[in-house]
Every structure is written in structure tokens, then in C-alpha cells.
Amino acid sequence: MAESYGGRYGQLVGKAVRHPGRALLRLVLHAKQARLDEARERQKLFAALSRRFGVDAQSLHTEYVESDFARAHRERQAELDRFPGPSRLGTTPEFGCEALYLLMRAARPRMVVETGVHYGASSAYILAALGLALGLLDPAVALVG
Fold it and tell me: Nearest-CA neighbor of 105 among 58, 43, 35, 42?
């Protein structure tokens, strides 16, 4: 059935037929993400992190945007965008990864447990933030794989 559509659309329909629950969840998540005003959500994130952890979240964000890690991530994302295969991108949106990075930098946890890794984007952001906070690694190293 899905094969009759062909191309990328056919692949998506095929996945939806095989895993309808996942397809519905993904549609809901994409719809929610599309409705977000990212600038507004980012400001709410900054306020929450600053209030909860007593940090200047705006400065942490500036640090992130100017980091080698962010540059390397943008380059890697551009490579993946050119790749024609299915499932080439992870499931965590960029804003979610950025929020994870800022949370790790602000909270400076002593232990982190990451489960359910797909392509490891969220893991890379967590490791980059912790590595920078603790001075253990060059943040760009988190993208090498």
C-alpha cells in the first residue's frame, strides 16, 4: 500500500502503517513544535534557569552560540540535511537540544543518566555542556563519532 506512493512520502506512509502509535505521537509533537514561538520559549527558559540555579542563562546561551560545539553541530546538521536517506535526523528538535545544554550548564549535575539514545544528539549536548563546565573535554569532541 505505502509503496504505491513512492519516494519520501511513501516511506513516511509505510512507517505510519507499521507503527501507527509512533506516527500519531510524532505528528502531535511536530504540531506542538510548529506552534511554539521559539524566541518567547527561549526567554521563558532563560528566566526559569536563572531563577532556579542563580545563573545568567543569557550568558550561557551566548557562550553556547559562539562555541566550537555549536559550530560543529551546525556543520554536521548541514551534512545530514544533504543526505537523502530516511531517519537521518534524530528525534530531539534543535531547541530541545539547546535547552538540554543550558540546563546542564546551569545545574552542573554530578551524575547524568541518558537512556533511549537514537543518534545521540541529546547525549552530545549533555556531554558538551558537562565537559565544558567541568573542564574535562573540548566541547567539539562530543560530536566526533
Answer: 58
For 51, the grid coordinates are: 531563577
Question: 90: closest CA among 115, 114, 69, 121?
Answer: 121
Mean per-residue pLDDT, 119-133? 81
Measure the CA–CA gap between 27 and 37, rounded to whole angstroms: 18
Question: Rounded to the nearest 10 degrees, how much is the dihedral formed by the CA atoms of 126, 129, 131, 135?
Answer: -160
Q: Residue 144 above 70 pLDDT?
A: no
Cα separations in angstroms, 2 against 22, 85, 87, 88: 16, 17, 17, 20
Short-list 101, 106, 107, CA closest to 126: 101
Residue 35, amino acid: R
d(CA 116, CA 106): 23
pTM over 0.70? The answer is no
Which of 121, 116, 61 shows the shortest CA–CA distance to 94? 121
- Confidence (pLDDT) at 76: 81
Which of the two residues, 115 and 90, has the higher pLDDT score? 115
C-alpha cell at position 36: 511554539
Is a pLDDT exceeding 70 seen at residue 66?
A: yes
Question: Considering only CA atoms, which of 101, 93, 99 is closest in space to residue 124?
Answer: 101
